[in-house]
Amino acid sequence: MYQLLDVAGIPAAVTAWTGRLRHRTYEVEDTASLQFEYPERLVTMFFTWAARRRENRIRFVGERGAIEWVGGELRLERDGTLERYDCSAELDKTAYHRWFAGLFESFVASLDQGDPTRAAVPYLDDIRRVATVVEHAYQAAQRGCRVAIPDGV
Amino acid sequence: MSTPASPDARRYRGAVIGAGGTARQSHIPALLTAAGLRERVEIVAVVDSAADVPPVDGIPLLSGREQLAALGPVDFIDICTPTVSHLDLILWGLERGYHVVCEKPVALTRAEADRIAAAARVRDRIVMPCHQYRFNPVWLRVKDWLREGAIGRWHLAELGVYRLTADPGRDAGGTPWRGTSAAGYCSITGPISCTSCSTSRGSRLP
Fold first, then answer.
1. Residue range B160-184, pLDDT digits in tens
2. Is A111 in contact with B9 (Cβ distance < 8 A)?
3. Which of A7, B27, B67, B133 is deepest in the core (most CB within 10 A)?
4. Domain, as residue range, for A34
5. Which segments of chain B belong to CATH 3.40.50.720?
């Protein structure tokens, strides 16, 4: 969710569906389908624990091309030319701790500032932004209708 | 007990709360082995109340969070437990003057987020969400392309995460912990974390 918010900001409205498709013993849903509306943009997110195989897919479509991230491959199509990048090594589980190292280095840098209240502001804003969207998404799923996310909530 | 907030502190003492998969596979390896962290961070304990927790890289293992107080000054806690425990552990940590890093989702509602923010301000402490994908080089490349306008103005995005089952956790068998309401987890946020394998698998609440 935070990745979406990083590139698109908080959506204007959300529509959502959640349910159990396969795992009947789960106490929570195993699948969620979300649709986020922005001015002149639409984002869909689909999450499931009921798939036949493990897979991640990300696609951005723009006026001049598209970015696709499918499994370990990143593709950039722009102005009719397709570039492909094998990122499997960077996405292997053995590489995960490097991402966490970056995160903790950022945390240490924040501690080094010596002004925790000020350093915490972007993190607390981050936490609230995600919570805002998640809360509205669940409201949309429960009500079965489109839910607007007002500015500044 | 916490150390005084000071920009002069050169090495920070922290405790990892929860000894499940994400702690062992991602958090602790990063804290112990990353070149930029080894000299800056000392992990003084791992806290997990489960009876069968194996040792973690020679780090003292505590069965209860209150035992942390006996270890001397602690600057921060790193929460790697199931979502349902996050709010309680964050508020507990802040109450004791610890800075906090917490696995996602940190809060599921604005009310929870506001409680955390208020407590952090009162205690003058940092609460950082574990949003580690921001440090994933592939995602960073995607962001760069979008920012640079490589595809022009984008108008459509699709994100899909497909899994066969919820994370089984350390206690295999039965319903995976992510599939239980006790985990406090639902699919809107759950598989997002599965994507980054940043789950706290099977950790008991300390």
1. 999 898 766 555 445 555 555 544 3
2. yes
3. B27
4. 2-55+93-148
5. 12-130
